[in-house]
Amino acid sequence: MAAVKAYPCPRMTLQTPDIAATEALLAFWRDAGVDACYLDEPVDRTVFVAPPLSIAPSPASSGVVTPLRAPNAADAVAEARAAAAQANSMEDLAEAIAAFEGCPLKGMGARQSVFSRGDPKGALMIVGEGPGADEDIQGKPFVGKAGQLLDRILAAADLLDQAFITNTVFWRPPGNRTPTPLEQAVCAPFLDRAFVLLRPRAVLLVGAAAAKSVLKIEEGIMRTRGQWREWRSPDGDVSAPVIATLHPAFLLRQPQAKGLVWKDILDLSARLSGEKLEPPA
């Protein structure tokens, strides 16, 4: 009988995950419009969970305290709309935003409001999603690594000097998370007012969250970017062509996508300069 040669069983080993690759994949999914995972039970993500109730002294002299309830979304939007309508300049609008108490983000750890930077009379309006840690500290949008990359891209296309840069929300979301649709809706009257005051010749939307909020769409940024659309003010008096592109934070993780953004920027530059773009073949 022939002997049977025995082979050792291969040892199972677990590979150490590539953290950078994992972060890049998650960023790709986010910018492509993936904002949730399947769970065991359905979750209604349209429901806003108010921050903890703050406590204020009662008018009575007894010293009894009573809870202050957060305003509902409709009241907050109405308050924002009324405050924004009173602003006749970008400076007035910045002050109105800083004084506004209706956005739930203001009570979630943000240091200060972050409204804008750039030329308040510029031909180009740029809208991102919301401030991060660096922006929260400095009080200006797009000043971190992603903002520095955005500036380099705009400067290369001779667009930086004519850009007015802002976001869909004006307080840093906790943990730099994506702002919720409700948070964006509460801040929208201020963004609409900035659009009316600026009357830009073109608008660049940066990232999926900005594109979805301004254009009122559900498509991911990979399907939206590079397409010209229109943004019209609520009263219909002001309109401008709009193009969306990938967020520079995504490019920091996926530099091979810079070519897509550069194409969008060149289309934007041609639109601003009045050049006629040939339709794609």
Automatic annotation (TrEMBL):
Key words, A-Z: 4Fe-4S, DNA damage, DNA repair, Glycosidase, Hydrolase, Iron, Iron-sulfur, Metal-binding
Single annotated GO MF: uracil DNA N-glycosylase activity
Domain Uracil-DNA glycosylase-like positions: 115-266
Family under the similarity heading: Belongs to the uracil-DNA glycosylase (UDG) superfamily. Type 4 (UDGa) family.
Annotated NCBIfam families: UDG_fam4 (TIGR00758)
PANTHER family, per the entry: TYPE-4 URACIL-DNA GLYCOSYLASE, TYPE-5 URACIL-DNA GLYCOSYLASE
UniProt-recorded name of the protein: Type-4 uracil-DNA glycosylase
Species this protein is from: Brevundimonas faecalis
